[in-house]
Amino acid sequence: MSIVNLLFCYAWNVADKSNRDSVCSHVARILREERERRGISMTRLAEMAGLSQGMISLVEHEHRNPSLDTMLRMCGPLGVNLSTVLSRAESAAGQTSKVALKRKS
Question: Please, which residues have CB within 8 angstroms of residue 45's CB and are 6 or more apart in sequence?
């Protein structure tokens, strides 16, 4: 741990890395599920969103965390609100952490 991390503290709660990673993972899963539910291929979503098919794949396979712009571009053609995706991902991440805590007990 660096000296900066030891001496600096945030005035507000900042999500820990495992929670951030869990939310990001759930966002990727939700976007993939919504695309598949609508029967849209990665290539077609990429065309509709103005993104490359490679970017869609990287996001869905959790190799890249999408930017706000990328998430908005993906949500538009899927007909889903980004706020809904994020809310669902946060809820799922919370449930996942509760299950993990119970297993440790």
Answer: 35, 51, 56, 74, 77, 78
Task: Look up residue 36 and give its amino acid.
Answer: E
102: tokens are 């119970």
Half-sphere exposure of 79 (CA within 13 A, CB side): 6
- What residue ranges do the domains of the chain occupy? 16-99
Question: What CATH class is the domain 16-99?
Answer: mainly alpha
Read off the pLDDT of residues 2-33 as tens digits, 9 standing for 90 and up: 665 556 655 555 557 888 899 999 999 999 99
pTM, entire model: 0.77
* Cα-to-chain-centroid distance, residue 29: 7
Tokens of 36: 């598949």
